[in-house]
Structure formats: C-alpha cells, structure tokens
Write a structure and sequence with these properties.
Layout (H helix, E strand, L loop, with lengths): L15 H13 L5 H8 L3 H11 L3 E4 L1 E4 L3 H20 L9 E8 L10 E4 L6 E4 L5 E9 L2 E7 L12 H16 L4
Parallel strand pairs: 2-5
Antiparallel strand pairs: 1-4, 3-6, 6-7
Helix pairs in contact: 1-3, 2-3
C-alpha cells in the first residue's frame, strides 16, 4: 500500500515562554473563550488550544444547570407520585381516561448561554450554575389526553401581564379553557 502524504502543515512547536502566560490568563478567567484568550495574548486560537491540551493538560468542560430544590420540595414531589401509582394499580383503565397537565416556567432574566458556558481546567470541577427558584418568568400550561395535546394556556392577566399559578387561577383555567378545548372530544 502506498503511504499517503500527510494533510496540511505540521503544527509548530509551542514556544516555552507562551505556556505560563496562557496558564495565568486561564486561571484568572477560566470561562473566557479560547478566541478571547488568543486575542488577549496575541496568539492564534490553535496555539492556545495546543498549549491548553498538550502542555497544561487542560480540558474544556461544560457548566451543568441544576434547579435549586429544598428538602421540602423533594418530599412534596414524592407523595403525589406514590398516590398516582397506587391509583393506577387499583384501576388499570384509568390511564385511558386520564387527562394530565403540567406547567412550565420560562425564565425571563438571568440567562446563561449553556452552549458557550464552558471553562478550561486540568480536571472537571463539576461546576454548577444555580438559579434562584423564584425569578421573573412566563408560566405556560399544556395537557395530554388520549385524543391529543391541549394547549398552550398562558397564565396572565387580561392586560397580558404574567401571573403565578394559584388555586383560583388554576380553577379558572380548568373550568373555562379546558372545558372549551375538551368539548369536541365528548
């Protein structure tokens, strides 16, 4: 078999005097992109990446997002789930007549771009970005029925201002919106 010629030019050796400045700038700003690191040090992006990988043995890690939950929140989620599982065991036909709904909160402030939220480090620090549980948001409800998806329903005032879900607002949604949406299925 014929040896093929290597593609592209071979990488240039790393200048030893560039390793320490790269280490210092990454330690000061681990979330800064390699492009911005390269601009700050007047080096190429390829050189920065090569120094990070081969000389410093750093790797890029993504920030993990986690909902901030208290122990009370965890307990309040387990009890209804266990009650539902018990009901299904007692009545297997219940699933065919079940209407399940859920709300989701879209956060409107404190956005962190997860795709660009990486950091360089020699090992994974398992960094978390925790968001406060109660911040500005839009609440939307949808339901799943054996005939299809119902919704979306936005919880807001007549003027279009977002409101949080409470018992009264949920009753209004279920008595007015769901009744109209379910009418064709009866």
């Amino acid at each position: 078999m014929k040896d093929s010629k290597p593609q592209g030019r071979p990488p240039l050796p790393t200048a030893p005097d560039n390793v320490e400045p790269v280490r210092d700038t990454v330690l000061r700003s681990p979330h800064r992109s390699t492009g911005r690191q390269a601009l700050a040090l007047s080096l190429s992006v390829c050189s920065i990446r090569r120094i990070l990988h081969k000389d410093l043995h750093y790797h890029p890690y993504k920030i993990q997002f986690a909902q901030e939950l208290s122990e009370r929140d965890k307990v309040s989620q387990i009890q209804p789930s266990n009650e539902f599982l018990g009901s299904v065991k007692n009545n297997s036909e219940m699933v065919n007549t079940l209407l399940m709904s859920d709300e989701v909160h879209f956060i409107v402030s404190g956005y962190v771009n997860k795709l660009k939220g990486s950091y360089w480090a020699p090992n994974n620090r398992h960094e978390l970005h925790q968001r406060p549980l109660h911040s500005g948001k839009v609440t939307v409800c949808c339901a799943v029925y054996c005939y299809g998806i119902i919704g979306p329903y936005f919880f807001e005032t007549e003027e279009g201002c977002t409101v949080s879900v409470n018992v009264e607002r949920y009753k209004v949604m279920s008595e007015i919106f769901l009744r109209i949406e379910l009418h064709p299925f009866r």
